User: What shape does this take?
Amino acid sequence: MGDFLNKSLGLAMLVIVTVVLTSCTTFRKKADNGYYKQRVVYHFNNIETAYRGLRNIDNHLNAVNEKNTEVIAVTHGGGAYMLVNGIQDKSGKTFDSYLAKLANRGVKFQICSNTLRNKKIPKSKISIHATVVPSGAAQLVHLQQKGYIYIKP
Assistant: This one.
């Protein structure tokens, strides 16, 4: 019985290691520019750093290329304001045209439903490029569990 149990445990460990290694190498597909294909989640919770963060995304896409990169920008708290039509940062820059440019490059924007409710932001004011998610924090964890790399600009 002990020998059978040892063999069964050994086989189970082999299966687990194989699954883990397979899932890790799935994300390590080589892109044609020297980088690996990337899945990234950018975290925005501050309007003051949002414009700089959007530039980070733009530069990221320039380096790796849209076809090699999946980018999702998750917003909550003060960072959610960057997805409100017509909002300006402290220097007077609006986000609308930059959001459109990045959305055309494949970036997905998500905004926290809790933030919308707590800050009394009407859904009618949200950028057409944004999708509402139940919780910004929960979405960040969810995407990391799916293999997205976390970046906080």
